[in-house]
Amino acid sequence: MPIYAYKCDSCGHTKDVLQKISDAPLTVCPACGAEAFSKQLTAPGFQLKGSGWYATDFKNGGSKPAASTSSSSDSAAAPAAAAAPATANS
User: Fold this and answer.
1) How far is CA 42 from CA 1, 21, 26, 46, 75, in A?
2) Structural domain of residue 29, as residue ranges?
3) What's the number of domains the chain is made of?
4) Alpha carbon distance 10, 35 (integer Å)
5) Is 8 in contact with 34 (CB distance < 8 Å)?
6) Name one Pfam family in it (predicted).
7) Which end of the chain is more exposed for a tag (fewer CB within 10 A), N or C?
8) pLDDT tens figures, 15-52
9) Do 37 and 54 lie in a common domain?
10) Burial of 15 (0-12, 13-18, 19+ CB in 10 A)
């Protein structure tokens, strides 16, 4: 269950609340009772840093299929080129 940050626009009271995604948002401030309690937009509680799976698997993932396709056509031409000098030498 995610933790949502709430703030009262009337008195400035803040509170973090553990709620289900399907729960209705709170509207009544527990400190002053005004109906000015609203969810705040906050940054996520974690950061992805370092050389983890996301950096190695997905950072350059878009260019890998194109590179493998072009290298397979190059590798098909390379044996023919390598075979030509070998037959010329014999």
Assistant:
1) 16, 16, 16, 12, 51
2) 1-42
3) 2
4) 8
5) yes
6) Zn_ribbon_8
7) C
8) 999 999 899 999 999 999 999 999 998 887 776 676 66
9) no
10) middle
